[in-house]
Amino acid sequence: MKIVFLMLLLISLFLFPDGICMSLAARPSVVSIGSILRFNSTTGGVSAVAIRAALEDINSDQTVLNGTTLQVDMRDTNCDDGFLGMVEALQFMETDVIAIIGPQCSTIAHIISYVANELQVPLMSFASDATLSSIQFPFFVRTMPSDLYEMAAVAAVVDYYQWKIVTAIYIDDDYGRNGIAALDDELTARRCKISYKVGFPSNAKRSELLNLLVTVSNMESRVIVLHTGADPGLKLLSLANGLNMMGNGYVWIATDWLSSYLDANSSVPAETINGMQGVLTVRPHIPKSKMKSNLMSKWSSLSKKYNHSDLRLSAYGFYVYDSVWAVARALDAFFDDGGRISFTNDSRLHDETGGSLHLEAMSVFDMGKRLLGKIRQVNFTGASGQVQFNAQGELIHPAYDIISIIGNGVRTIGFWSNYTRLLSTVLPEDLYSKPPNTSVANQHLYDVIWPGETAQKPRGWVFPSNAKELIIGVPNRFSFKAFVTLDNATGKMTGYCIDVFTQALALLPYPVTYRFQAFGNGTENPHYDQLVQKVVDNEFDAAIGDIAITMSRTQALDFTQPFIESGLVILAPVKKHITNSWAFLQPFTLGMWCVTGLSFLVVGVVIWVLEHRINDEFRGSPRQQLITIVWFSFSTLFFAHRENTMSTLGRGVLIIWLFVVLIIQSSYTASLTSILTVQQLDTAIRGLDDLKNSDYPIGFQVGSFAQEYMVKELNISRSRLKALGSPEEYADNLKKGPKKGGVMAIVDERPYVELFLSTYCKVAVAGSDFTSRGWGFAFPRDSPLQVDLSTAILTLSENGELQRIHDKWLKTSDCSADNTEFVDSNQLRLESFMGLFLICGAACVLALLIYFGIMLRRYLRHEPPPESISAEAGSSKSKRSLKRFFSFVDDREPPKQKRSLYLSGNSSMPTTPTSNVDIERPVRPIRNGGVVHIES
Questions:
Q1: CA–CA dist 84, 354 (Å, integer)
Q2: Looking at residue 810, what DSSP letter applies?
Q3: This prediction's pTM
Q4: Would you call 545 exposed, middle or buried from its count of C-beta atoms within 10 A (0-12, 13-18, 19+)?
């Protein structure tokens, strides 16, 4: 038997050498992985306990590695000293390990990732630096959310509270710089920005941190994002508290280093926690699970067992715990798939000098790529939630808790999830089963007690006390100086716009240091597009004055709330009074008068035709009939016609005609009233349509946007436009008119026009405003001062101060009150009533056609059929027939008579025709006593 068994074994080895070796070597008794941590840090201590906890659970579970024992070789590395830390990490890589847990430091992770790529060893790191990617480092596997998601959560908080600028304080290393770069990108996507960035070294002294905070306190932003480690971060918060930077008006947002410190430390000094009241921070969201509950329940005993009794479980502990489990599950699949642990020396790694770095000792893991593939395929519910990697090697569904420090603890005020990219008070895991709702309107957070123990949301910025003096550009106008003017003697700017600006500044809760700088030479109005361009070019910090808010300007600048409404209007000369004795003819054009008069006569003739045969009121001598036609026609104008209409067709035509008369009469009355009571325009341009369609010259104010608007929007030729610089030029050019070198009309903004009309009474506004705009103060993009001044202008409007300033500078005279009416003296044209006349004409024609059709039918019944006649006599016969037809139509139609029978009692007799014409007349019995008379 032994001989047979040995022979079979030899045959198997010869035929299937790989299969036998695989079965014998696939499941080693012990598998070692490595771990690089910083033991003297909070995160490192928590991670060490979590690794040992995971090892205990894995090795006690026979279903995971099928009897193989998993071991972890943990090495300490110094994150503060980057060089020594890298040397220590490289020395650790001399040992043959098949996977590494860590490192926690981004600086060390960058170096080790290069080595891991060369040695093909999967690196299960919880370094959050977003620049560590699987594209550059294929063997880098991030086992917690990266800073891309953390900074997205921070930016969402900033945007939710409508803060536009923030100050970023960060530790100046890969972790800090790359994290703030990610924050900058996220804020920019939300139209926010980092106004000031300040970094510091990890070994910065107290005096350096103090100077840093003093500099920050002089900046305008009061929203401060702190992206550091635990030690320097706590130092900064303590120093800020001493500088009163934890008081009212400040906002502090710390990244997850603060939440990890508070979660992991069982006893935080009261002085430390009191100095950070109202601070917001974020924490990776860990959903509830069975593994999480089990780990939390035994954490206290584990931390005591491994000499970390002062540390509690933090989010990092959950992720590290799951990292070890992910390696164990991947190894199990790796061995099941025939994986073997073997190493090969890399000929490129050789230390010629014989130094302490034994590069030749580093070996390449032969099946590292296969193990990496198994790690990326793991899918299980761990202590940190769902452990599953996407195509980019990132954990799916990253989410964060938004927490506020209050009292002796923290309070969760909401959550941020990458699933919706929004803030919510609903747990992220409850959202995964529903379609993502990305509407910003659904965002919500619970109330916060801010620094300074206030529930009112901080403004987020102040005007810095040591800020430079703002240079504000003001137009130096030549005309309409009531809006803004420069006193050459004193150099002081005055006017309506200046008063609005200074009164609005007085409402701000902080002082603003500024200096007005005149723009323009004062001999002509400056071009306002050039003024606002200087704000865009940062030559001016702002521009105030009578600056119209136009679409092109808002594309480059931010404007305050408009402080006065303004739109383009048309100025045209007017006649003061109507002195024409024939003014009553002006409501209608000549064509309208002619068509209306002809319509009266036509309708009168049609009614006469329809009523002449059966209505005695429309019969008589030719003279009487003509008078009846004229009288009936024009009496309908006053609805005073006395003739009754008897035919159905006549009544139909009359109803339609009376409706037309009602419309014409009402329109005439309204137009005549307007002519006799309102001044009339003495120009061919009475509205926007006439302005565009005519060829007359048009005036505009120098420097106004009206020129470009008419050219680009109304397609008016630039050659028709004439620049005017003063009210005197306005009046002179309108008086001259186009024939004497003047203009037919002027297009300008309403505030200027109202001021002009307060002095010049022989012009008026034609039509209505054809643009809807306003005047505002111009500021650079995202200027907080623009927002506060807008609020102040609204306050001035509500308390009546804005109207008082208006009355002070722009109060109009009695002359203006008469001229500012929107006048349009266009006569009533025929085109406006053409539909009515067409309807009435169609009714008349249709009635006549029906009438003559009926008459022709009756005539053919009455007239016997013609006999055969010769061709020569045909013409005269036709003329006689036509004459007889018109004679038939002209004859009075006998009234329908009723022939009655003399009947006794209830008896009756049949009726018989007695008329000498072909008309049947019914019998009308008249009972008189017992005798019935027959009336014929």
A1: 19
A2: H
A3: 0.66
A4: buried
